[in-house]
Write a structure and sequence with these properties.
Elements (H helix, E strand, L loop, with lengths): L33 H9 L1 H10 L1 E6 L2 E6 L2 H15 L7 E7 L5 H15 L5 E6 L2 H13 L18 H9 L4 E5 L20 E6 L8 H9 L4 E6 L8 H7 L2 E5 L1 H5 L1
Parallel strand pairs: 3-7, 3-8, 4-5, 4-6, 6-7
Antiparallel strand pairs: 1-2
Helix pairs in contact: 3-4
């Protein structure tokens, strides 16, 4: 209407059109205006980035659905991309990606990993780690439904670890994605966990596995992948001053909190 603006894909219903309130930085004061949206989307560099890296096609029960990124996903994912570009300086601690629950965090994980593989030099592998079966299956399904991984669960070529031994096999071979529970990094009778890969182009993405990132399983994971980089995705704020989180992941790389979501 010349004053207020929303953006969505051509086939989306109105409730899936969203405001584009910030242009280039999460810390900007949010502003709903046609001018903000045009500058934030139609600048040639941003427009090409959006077209190449921030559109997904998801297989739903009713057919194929076109998904266009939301403003907080676009800004947050590009923050995380810059952290990967500075991987030598941050020593593999890519940060904590805190986007409140219901904000499309699983899609952000797809946008992030796909853009890294598409735009940054390296033979990248992403290890997606959770600590609950339900969450593991949910994230795997999201990646499969948008075509990031083949939808062949339980068959040859499946990249979702079925057991601790299967996880070792997947990490020793060259896969773009590996999905696992952190509990599968287990050993028997206190035996040391073996080194599975010394590659520097492995990124571990953990989702909602706060406390399990500081125990024996986490230590085994770092033993298995000594040169991997780590980024934590979460929908809830971390405990203030939690030093262990900073040691593992670094500082916040992106924040989209509950207040912003309500606004």
């Amino acid at each position: 209407n010349g004053r207020y603006s929303r953006v969505g894909s051509l086939t989306a219903s109105w409730e899936h059109f969203h405001e584009w309130k910030r242009i280039s930085d999460e810390k900007e004061a949010g502003r709903i205006s046609l001018e903000t949206m045009i500058e934030g989307i139609c600048d040639r560099t941003r427009l090409l980035d959006l077209l190449e890296n921030f559109i997904l096609f998801e297989q739903k029960s009713g057919g194929l659905v076109k998904l266009f990124t939301r403003n907080h996903q676009y800004l947050g994912v590009n923050n995380a991309i810059r952290a990967v570009e500075a991987i030598q300086n941050n020593r593999g601690r890519l940060g904590v990606f805190w986007h409140t629950q219901g904000s499309g965090k699983s899609y952000s994980m797809v946008f992030f990993s796909q853009k890294v593989m598409r735009k940054l030099t390296g033979n990248w592998t992403f290890v997606i780690v959770t600590d609950r079966d339900e969450l593991d299956s949910q994230i795997y399904k999201t990646f499969a439904d948008v075509g990031a991984v083949p939808n062949i669960k339980g068959k040859q070529g499946d990249v979702q670890a079925e057991s601790g031994e299967d996880l070792k096999r997947l990490l020793r071979t060259d896969n773009r994605y590996v999905f696992t529970l952190i509990q599968k990094f287990h050993t028997r009778d206190g035996q040391p966990y073996p080194v599975l890969s010394e590659r520097h182009d492995i990124i571990v993405m953990t989702d909602e596995a706060h406390r399990s990132q500081y125990d024996t399983f986490a230590a085994n994971m770092r033993q298995a992948l000594p040169n991997a980089a780590f980024i934590g995705f979460t929908g809830t704020p971390l405990i203030a001053g939690e030093e262990r989180t900073r040691q593992v992941f670094g500082e916040y790389v992106s924040i989209y909190d509950f207040r912003q979501s309500v606004e």
